Amino acid sequence: MTVPKAPLWHPFTQHATEPVPLPVARTEGAFLVTEDGRRILDAISSWWVITHGHRHPAIAAAIRAATERLDQVIFAGFTHEPAERLAEALVRLAPPGLARVFLSDSGSTSVEVALKMALGYFRNIGAPRRRIAVMEHGYHGDTIGAMSVGARGIFTAAYEPLLFSVDPIPFPEEGREQATLDALEAVCREGDTAALVVEPLVLGAGGMRTYRPAVLAELRRICTCHGVLLVADEVMTGWGRTGTLFACEAAGITPDILCTSKGLTGGFLPLAATLCREEIFAAHLSSDRGRTFFHSSSFTANPIACAAALANIAVWEQEPVAERVTHLARMQEERIARFRGDRRFTGVRRTGTIAALDLAVPDAGYLAEAGPRLRAFFLARNILLRPLGNVIYVLPPYCVTGADLDRIYDAVAEAPEVLAVRSGAVAA
Ligand SMILES: *Cc1c(COP(=O)(O)O)cnc(C)c1O
Fold first, then answer.
1. Domain boundary pick from 265, 293, 318
2. Which Gene3D superfamilies does this entry report, sorted A to Z (predicted)?
3. 149 in Cβ contact with 197 (< 8 Å)
4. Which ligand 1 atom sits nearest the alpha carbon of residue 199?
């Protein structure tokens, strides 16, 4: 039996076939330390949330201090300093023009909030629109609305009856970007599109697919032309991952709605924010109660999480984080470069601190097996990597060292041989 001893059900885990989950006793910088003392290099930032490194001392201290004064406080009819200061800081740091902050508790929820803001806006201005345009291969979370605007496939098949229909535009492959823009034009011309939801520059779960900032700028232009709201899901890309604080900065654009979560607290605690332009907020102001923004979750604006986010922002402002990001981007480029021209790999790419490459796989059978076998192979070398099918990506915390990266890429270079041996001779 591989099912866990504790009565737990783990996320995205096939308990019938996957190894028993490893017990982590401690985290430290770029490492997870297991109960039996293994130090595992966290090369995917614990699912993309840890930015500076695990347990940054300033954020830990801020959390401890916050618990001396507050725990959860109802956020309707009441407010508190951590939330107010956080909102001010986010408006100051986000692309100019985003003026209001709605706080929630996960990336998925921040997307649900964005969708409701968009539909509510058009209804409240008296010009209701019903459709949402999305980018092919997108991922926006696992709640029903977030799944609806994301790519459909094995992960969503069972829930298809509950998903609403959306208008997908093709992913802007290099050299075929015009087709994406033309598709958006065509969708927008129909006149019923409330919003376009996209991950700016890097589509994470959809295979670390990257596209050029100029394309994002064009998407912005087309949305503006048709009065369609642009929703930038920066849940993964925010907080330096793509080289700038938010990915939208590279394109010089401001979306109408921006979602952020994962790195918002440095990855320490669950918290999310949906930022929007003042017009969207203003459209909900009315003596008619029916125009209220009807959304909440029990832990909206949790003061401890807000304090963690404020401490994260202080780290960005007081430590040379931007320099670390630039340095990491350069170190990643130096190491991924060796795979360009290596015929065992294709699509070698990097955006900011994120590097990815596709393992050339001979057939679909290999493809289906590749993910779990690669994961086991890396773990046997004390490296946490979770390839997306045949896509190997390295998305480390910013404290990772050049030597740590060398260890990762040396293992990546060995990976094709492992898959070439078909009958599972992978050490667990
Ligand atoms: C992870 C992710 C989400 C979902 O965030 P959760 O906190 O897991 O709900 C949404 N959008 C993007 C782009 C993500 O990478």
1. 318
2. Aspartate Aminotransferase, domain 1, Type I PLP-dependent aspartate aminotransferase-like (Major domain)
3. yes
4. 13
Number of structural domains, the chain?
2
Going by CA atoms, what residue is nearest to atom 11 of ligand 1? 140
- Tell me how far apart the alpha carbons of residues 105 and 108 are, in angstroms, rounded to a whole number: 9
Say yes or no: 397 and 306 in one domain.
no
Ligand 1 centroid, distance to 148 Cα (angstroms): 13
Phi, psi of 282 (to 5 degrees): -60, -35
Query: Is residue 204 in contact with ligand 1, taking CB distance under 6 Å?
Result: yes
Give me 201's structure tokens: 């520059």
Strand 31-34 vs strand 24-28: parallel, antiparallel, or unpaired? Answer: antiparallel
Please tell me whether residues 338 and 230 are part of one structural domain. no
Binding residue ranges: 47, 107-108, 139, 233, 262, 296-298, 386
pLDDT tens across 117-151, in order?
999 999 999 999 999 999 999 999 999 999 999 99
Give per-residue pLDDT as tens, 7-61. Answer: 999 999 999 999 999 999 999 999 999 999 999 999 999 999 999 999 999 999 9
Residues 383 and 413 in one domain: yes
Instruction: Calculate how far, in angstroms, residue 236's C-alpha sits from the geometric centre of ligand 1.
Output: 7
